[in-house]
Amino acid sequence: MKHQRTHKNSKLIYFLCLFLTSIFCTSCMDLASNENKNKQAALKKMSYRKGQVYTMRGLGGIFSRGMNRLEDTLENDYHIRTSSTIWYKVNDLSDFIITNHRDKTLQGPIILIGHSLGANEQIKVAEKLARANIPVDLLMTIDAVSPIRVPPNVKEVFNIYKPALVPMFSGLTLKARDSKQTHVVNFNVKTLKGIYVNHFTIDKNKAIQKIMLDKVLATLSVANKK
Could you read off the pLDDT of 145-194 as tens digits, one per residue? Predict the structure, then answer.
C-alpha cells in the first residue's frame, strides 16, 4: 500500500515537473522575438503589411501549437507581423501594444487571437486596451472556456467553438457588453461536415486553420481600405 502511494506521488511529481518545464520553455517564444523578426526582415529586404496580429496559447502552452502554426503562416506567407505569447502574459502583451500604439512604432489594425485559456485572456487584453482607448478590429477566440463579455472597443468577435461534456474542455458562446458596438459571430464547428476535433486539436485542424487565416486576411483587407 505504501509502495503504491509512493509510486503515485512520484508520477504526480513527474507530471508537475513536466508541466512547469513546458510553461518555461513555451514562454520563451513570445514578444521578445519581435526584434529578431525585424532584423530578419531587414536582411531579406521584406516589408510587413499594415496590421498587428497577436496569438495566445492556453494552459501550459503545449496544447495550443495551432497558434504558432498560424503565426508562421501569416509571417512567412503573407508578411503580416505576428507575435505569439502565453496566457499568463496578459499584462506584458497589453503593455507592449499600448506602448507601440502611443509612439506609433507599429501601424495598422490590431487582431487578437487565442485558444482555450488563451482565448479568455485575450478578452482581458482587449479590456486593458479599452481603458487606453485603443480599438481592436478583430478578436478571434478558439474554444473559449469562460463566458467573459467582450468590451465595446472590439469591433468584431469571431468565436470558433465546439461544445463538450466536460465544462473546462468545452467551447462556449460569447456575448458583447454592447451589441451595437461589437458584432459577435459564434461559429460551432459541429456544423462543418467531416471535421472531427476536440478541445486539444481544434486549433491545429487544417480546415480551422484555413478559417482563421481567411478571417485575418479579410479583416486586414477591409480595415486597410478605410
Answer: 988 999 999 999 999 999 988 877 889 999 999 999 999 999 999 999 88
The torsion angles phi and psi of 196, rounded to 5 degrees, stand at: -120, 100
C-alpha cell at 64: 495550443
C-alpha cell of 62?
503545449
Average confidence (pLDDT) over 191-202: 92
Q: Which residue has the cell 478605410?
A: 226
d(CA 65, CA 61): 7
Q: Judge contact between 75 and 69, C-beta under 8 A.
A: no
Q: Is the pTM of this model over 0.85?
A: no
Q: Could you tell me the CA-to-CA distances from 116 to 52, 110, 123 in Å, in that order?
A: 21, 20, 12
**What is the C-alpha separation between 226 and 223, in angstroms, rounded?**
6
- Three-state SS at 11: helix
DSSP structure class, residue 172: -
Give the sheet arrangement for strand 49-57, strand by strand: 80-86, 49-57, 110-115, 138-142, 156-161, 183-188
Per the CB < 8 A criterion, the answer to whether 220 and 108 are in contact is yes
